[in-house]
Design brief:
alpha+beta; elongated
């Protein structure tokens, strides 16, 4: 009976931490479009999270399987733990990166092009402004209201941030 209570407690702990980490990852994904290289940020953090999650799974596996009711279900548990670690790392590294960043430059830049991708099934809405920054076009993702009020040729105030963790980002300062 004692082992069944520990198994239930273990299951609740794993599922609670999984959902908490998914919630934290959603919060982190709010900031990721600001990064200069958002796909690289997501890939690096996810890869590190998979390795750390796998290492943690290997260390916790004997304890977890000791109290697990289904011994043949270890792949599902390993995936839960790895996803939990990835979500926690995405949130933590994103917050550390933003907190460690310092402003390098704020200036007005001209919008040279703008486009919008409307939301569809499994595709989010993306409102993009293309800005000319020192003869180089840079894309800025923004909210619909801001995107709608700006016209091609108008200027927006952008601030550039450099972070100690190397993931630099751009923020609209209006």
């Amino acid at each position: 009976m004692k082992s069944k209570k520990k198994a239930i407690l273990l299951g609740l702990t794993i599922f609670t931490s999984l959902f908490a980490s998914m919630f934290l990852a959603i919060i982190a994904f709010q900031d990721i479009p600001k990064y200069n290289k958002p796909y690289l940020f997501t890939f690096v953090i996810s890869a590190v999270g998979i390795f750390i999650g796998y290492f943690i799974w290997k260390k916790l596996k004997p304890t977890i399987l000791k109290y697990s009711q289904k011994k043949n279900n270890e792949q599902n548990l390993s995936v839960f733990i790895i996803i939990t670690i990835v979500g926690l790392l995405l949130f933590t590294i994103n917050e550390l990166n933003i907190l460690s960043a310092y402003k390098t430059n704020c200036d007005l830049y001209t919008i040279v092009y703008k486009y919008r991708k409307e939301s569809r099934f499994r595709q989010p809405e993306v409102n993009t402004l293309v800005v000319d920054i020192v003869s180089k076009n840079e894309t800025i993702v923004c909210k619909y209201d801001f995107w709608n009020e700006k016209r091609i040729g108008s200027q927006i105030n952008l601030c550039f941030y450099e972070a100690i963790l190397v993931f630099n980002y751009i923020e609209i300062n209006e």
